[in-house]
Amino acid sequence: MEISNLTKKRIKDYLEAGKRFDGRGLLDHRKLTIETGISINAEGSARVRLGKTEVVAGVKMDVSEPYTDHEGEGTMITTLELLPLSSEEFDYGPPKIDAIEIARIVDRGIRESKMIDFEKLCIKEGEKVWTLFIDMYTMNDDGNLLDASALAAIAALMTARMPKYDEEKEKVSFGEFTKDPLPITKNIPLTFTFHKIGKSIILDPGREEEAASEARVSIAVSSDGKETRVNAMQKGNEAAIKPEEMFEIIDLAEKKYKESSKEIFEMIEKSLKTKK
Amino acid sequence: MAYTKRPDGRKFDELREIKAKVGVIPRADGSAMFAFGDTIAIAAVYGPKPLHPQHLQNPEKGVLRVNYDMLSFSVNERKKPGPSRRSQEISKVTEWALAPALQINNFQNTVVDVHITILQANASTRCAGINAASLALAHAGIPMIDLVSAVSIGKIDDKIVTDLIKEEEDYEDGEGATDIPFAFLSKSGEITLMQLDGRTSTKKLKEAIEAGRKACKEIYDIQKKVLKEIQEK
User: Fold this and answer.
1) Which tens digit of pLDDT belongs to each residue from B3-60?
2) How many contacts does A have with B, using Cβ atoms within 8 A?
3) Domains of chain B
4) What percent of chain A has pLDDT over 90?
5) What is the pLDDT of residue B2?
6) Percent of chain B scored above 70 by pLDDT?
7) B166 vs A: CB within 8 A
8) Cβ–Cβ gap A85/B82 under 8 Å
9) Is B83 left (phi over 0), alpha (psi -120 to 50) or beta?
């Protein structure tokens, strides 16, 4: 999205005075809602709304061969499509760099946090393992698709159930599910994307703020209950970030994780219980 | 074994529970959700807007462009993301199903884009998509002479059945399953979409058209109702 220099300047001036167009504080998220079980044929699925931004994610599973360097581990493929349905700025066609980048940041957060115990997704070492497909689709773009996508992905994973595996035929009985959840550990990552506009650092930008962003830093943070860890990071956009600003952002990410993780995980668990 | 009872207990001419809602995608010019039971379609309309690339523009009238696709996890076995031959054909027949209702001749060189996404599938996805798209076009304020309502009619064994589910589409006993999706201009009753997959006598086929017309009148009433309920914030 292109915005005028006037709007850009106005956004900067506002932020320097500690204000935002919609009245939020610089590090406040918009209203978050998480629904799970939104698509019954998926092993797990979720819809996340951050204000008017909406992303859906689904988990499907199949059986395939493991990678030769990890013969006893399941595999995972993460995709994101910026659907033209969600914005007049998105086009059809193979995912382009914007979509690829979001999917890869989400993938790294999930993979590196060890949220999924891939060893438990092995059926027969060296021959057959489970493959997880995490597919995310944008429904409405009102800024910060990245954080919304990452949340939708973990919510879909946390609420997924294993499909039924036919041992005799050695393939998945599609459409049949077990009651077993995925092998999920405590280390569930949350992704926070900070944007630098002028001298200010903000979270969860709306569309205009995103267009005014000079630099952004995405950080996926997880915790094993004892200490928090950073699992994935990406600096984006053209402007540089000073080391001290980066230190500040890293501390803010850890603080945000500690403040909001309990509430978010409870929200996801509750969403499952309210479903039949 | 003759087909005497439907798997979900519905009467032969009974639709699944219909849910419809307008305005589900705030960023779009018009949008709607339409569900037949477990089949959920979402449609968004953008336009009329300048059509690019320029050589596709029509200096005599506006162009309608439809894209239908299913989310990868909307079906039992993951669908590979991206367009398929099936989705391209459905996009085209949906375009033809909707076009007669639109009056976009005065919007020369522009396009009205309709994006249809299937969130969850249990048969009749193209019909749910057309119903959602028709609502979204009306919501976007595109000039229309009529709404379009669509339903899938089936001949399962020797019975004419309204609004098929997957289990019925896959029925193999007796004469098997014939799937016939329809779309009608709601007021005039003219047919804008008809496809057929299976085998049937001409007599049964005429019965199917009647059943489609009847079901679409019910769908039209629901479409009108949700459009009247729009309250812009």
Assistant:
1) 899 999 999 999 999 999 999 999 999 999 999 999 999 999 999 999 988 899 999 9
2) 84
3) 18-228 (3.30.230.70)
4) 87
5) 79
6) 98
7) no
8) no
9) beta
Cα–Cα dist B157/B1, whole Å:
9
Residues 6+ positions from B6 with CB-CB distance below 8 Å: B12, B161, B168
Q: Does B222 touch chain A (CB under 8 A)?
A: no
Digit-coded pLDDT (tens) for B49-90: 999 888 999 999 999 999 999 999 999 999 999 899 999 999
* Cα–Cα distance measured from residue A52 to residue B8, given in angstroms and rounded to the nearest whole number: 36
> Domain residues for A65?
5-273
| pTM for the predicted model, two decimal places | 0.91
d(CA A172, CA B13): 35
Q: What is the mean pLDDT of residues A62-68?
A: 93
CATH code (residue A51): 3.30.230.70
Nearest CA in chain B to A139: B25
The ipTM (two decimal places) reads 0.84
C-beta separation of A146 from A102 below 8 A: yes
Total structural domains in chain A? Answer: 1
Look at B25 and A174 and tell me if their CB atoms are within 8 Å. Answer: no
Of A59, A133, A140, the CB nearest to B26: A140
Tell me how far apart the alpha carbons of residues B89 and B161 are, in angstroms, rounded to a whole number.
Answer: 24
Q: Do A92 and B67 touch (CB under 8 A)?
A: yes
